[in-house]
Amino acid sequence: MSVTLPKGFVAAGVAAGLKSSGKPDVAVVVNQGPGMSAAAVFTSNRVQAAPVKWSRQVTADGQVQAVVLNSGGANACTGSPGFEDAAATAAHAAELLRLPADNVAVCSTGLIGIRLPMPELLTGVEAAVGELSAEGGASAARAIMTTDSVPKEAGATRDGWSVGGMAKGAGMLAPGLATMLVVLTTDADVEPAALDRALRAATRVTFDRADSDGCMSTNDTVVVLASGASGIRPSDDELAAALTEVSADLARQLIHDAEGAHHDIAIEVVGAATEADAETVGREIARSNLFKCAVFGNDPNWGRVLSAIGVTDAEFDPDLLDVSFNGVMVCRGGQIGEDRSLVDLGPRDVHVLVDLHAGDATATILTNDLTYDYVRENAEYSS
């Protein structure tokens, strides 16, 4: 299960020397067609990295044939020289692949405020192009890692067509249309406009609801490429469902691998007046350091959940709130519910259910009990 699961895609990952550790740091994913539809969503952070600015331009027409990604340097806050570096990276890959430069997207991750070592990067791109294969998805996923402890890949097969994907991210995980770096692929035959609709529908309920630390990156990018190699044209709903399945899998992997986390937490908000209210409540709880500390300490402290809900502008009656931890309703009607000692917070997965009793809308936010008492050798702050 990787970006090369769908027909028509090749990929590779190599070590180019961008990382002092010597680990893989350059990846290339190529759509061999016959189609070249593409769509992307990017960070809404007003401080945006050069590769985000470049890739916004090249994806605007809905056609991309290759994505070049590097770890070991974000190429963010590097001014016009950094943009020129992103353009040069695309141009070099395009020359090697015999493609137009404006059909090559670029993604970078690593430290902010440092120029990329271009000779090493361009040599790495050349090496990666030389190793492209239909079995190269795993090496590409490994090459985009920063503080990730494991590569992240996913896939979904349908009747004659499929979706694949890879992602990186272990810190600076907070939503803004998308988070982290993600490349999705499909061999479905789909027009750019339909692909864009499906991607936005998928990211809205997956990556956009994964919130580890409340810190939005300057480099967040999710791009999807469609080769059309299956010859099958799914409906809009079928395509969105497949993209959502893969995106949800990758989002869960990102939350699971977040730096210092011991629990994966799904905060499900039901009974909201609107979906926006449900999302607001879930996100407020997810960003509460007191709530995270409680879960880390295996304490189902529902008071911290109620206090987080109380600062939102969502519609609710405080005397009707219900809160459950892993199936035990510890707060019922805004008051003491079941004995909190009945709650088992030992498992890695924690489910918090909040019922606002104000309507029928729902939303689920993925988070974790991220803590800061960890030390990692050769750690590189991600972006």
Automatic annotation (TrEMBL):
Domain of life: Bacteria
Matches recorded under InterPro entries: Arg_biosynth_ArgJ, ArgJ-like_dom_sf, ArgJ_beta_C
Reactions listed under catalytic activity: N(2)-acetyl-L-ornithine + L-glutamate = N-acetyl-L-glutamate + L-ornithine; L-glutamate + acetyl-CoA = N-acetyl-L-glutamate + CoA + H(+)
Record EC number: 2.3.1.35, 2.3.1.1
Pathway membership: Amino-acid biosynthesis; L-arginine biosynthesis; N(2)-acetyl-L-ornithine from L-glutamate: step 1/4; Amino-acid biosynthesis; L-arginine biosynthesis; L-ornithine and N-acetyl-L-glutamate from L-glutamate and N(2)-acetyl-L-ornithine (cyclic): step 1/1
Binding site for substrate: T146, K168, T179, E259, N378, S383
Record's GO cellular component terms: cytoplasm
Marked site: Involved in the stabilization of negative charge on the oxyanion by the formation of the oxyanion hole: T109, G110
Subcellular location: Cytoplasm
Location of the active site: T179
Alphabetical GO biological process terms: L-arginine biosynthetic process; ornithine biosynthetic process
Key words of the record: Acyltransferase, Amino-acid biosynthesis, Arginine biosynthesis, Autocatalytic cleavage, Cytoplasm, Multifunctional enzyme, Transferase
Signal peptide: none
GO MF annotations in UniProt: L-glutamate N-acetyltransferase activity; L-glutamate N-acetyltransferase activity, acting on acetyl-L-ornithine as donor
Primary role: Catalyzes two activities which are involved in the cyclic version of arginine biosynthesis: the synthesis of N-acetylglutamate from glutamate and acetyl-CoA as the acetyl donor, and of ornithine by transacetylation between N(2)-acetylornithine and glutamate.
This protein's name: Arginine biosynthesis bifunctional protein ArgJ
Species of origin: Tessaracoccus oleiagri
